[in-house]
Specification:
6-stranded antiparallel beta sheet; alpha+beta; 274 residues; globular; 35% helix; 11 helices
Length: 274
């Protein structure tokens, strides 16, 4: 497997200005265990990887290949909800929207005009085309396959990105942890429907931590729960998150966040944190 076949484009410089080498499978496995302990995350944390070669994707140990067409949301859900390792090509996906966000070959060259969404998600083709233009997506032409797998399995070594489903309370502490050292203001977007472009599309294309409110399709087809948000980020951020969470916990800022009481004297509960 060549480096070109298994790696994404170089990520942009982020808040701390540092990008170490990709962590080992053992390091990722330990970070997953630590995150589960620190944030009490219930859904399986998974990795996603793009491949230039279908044969390389198919060589992943214990990989499953779909026998029917699915949405990308369903493929991700198979890993996050069932713990499966699943590989797909463009032909396994039901529509160009899923293919296009992942940079896999689309069948309709006019898929970005949005006409199929008029009268469904948007009032006019102008509105629909504007939404399509706003999608973060992997450029076409390089990749032929994609795989997802639980991070703890180590089968994607390393994954391009990691996907973490969490409640808003868990997610804000994860964000706080990423900002604990080398602070940067995170600025995210809400494209609306096709919110996978806000999460894995953006993280794959830009290399930045990317938060999304999962959309209707992700919840209807991908099994995303009503109280879940999604963070997509490169694997080297996992250890940073763990270190940040441990530092916050040492300061009394930990999950679950203990409610203080809306009628209490707040001065007694603020202590050193404020």
């Amino acid at each position: 497997m060549t480096k070109q076949e298994t790696t994404m484009m170089s990520p942009p410089t982020l808040g701390d200005g540092k990008h170490g080498s990709a962590p080992s499978a053992d390091s990722i496995r330990q970070s997953v265990e630590d995150l589960q302990q620190l944030l009490k995350i219930k859904t399986t944390m998974i990795g996603m990887k793009l491949f230039e070669s279908e044969a390389v994707m198919a060589s992943i140990p214990k990989i499953r290949r779909p026998k029917k067409q699915h949405t990308a949301d369903q493929i991700v859900g198979m890993a996050a909800r069932l713990g499966w390792t699943v590989g797909i090509t463009a032909q396994d996906l039901v529509g160009d929207q899923c293919r296009g966000v992942l940079g896999l070959a689309v069948e309709d060259p006019n898929w970005l005009d949005g006409r199929r969404y008029v009268g469904v998600w948007h009032a006019s083709q102008e509105d629909a085309a504007a939404r399509q233009a706003a999608l973060d997506r992997v450029p076409q032409g390089r990749y032929r396959a994609m795989a997802v797998s639980p991070l703890a399995s180590g089968r994607l070594d390393p994954p391009d990105i990691c996907l973490i489903y969490a409640t808003p309370g868990q997610m804000i502490l994860l964000i706080n942890a990423l900002q604990y050292e080398g602070y940067r203001k995170f600025e995210w977007q809400v494209v609306g429907e096709t919110a996978c472009a806000d999460s894995w599309g953006r993280a794959l294309a830009r290399g930045e931590p990317s938060l999304s409110i999962p959309c209707f399709a992700e919840r209807r087809y991908g099994g995303v729960q009503d109280d879940e948000l999604l963070m997509a980020l490169q694997p080297h951020y996992l250890a940073k998150a763990v270190n940040g969470l441990r530092s916050l916990a040492a300061n009394g800022l930990r999950y679950p966040i203990a409610p203080y009481g809306v009628q209490m004297d707040v001065r007694e509960g603020m202590a050193a944190s404020y």
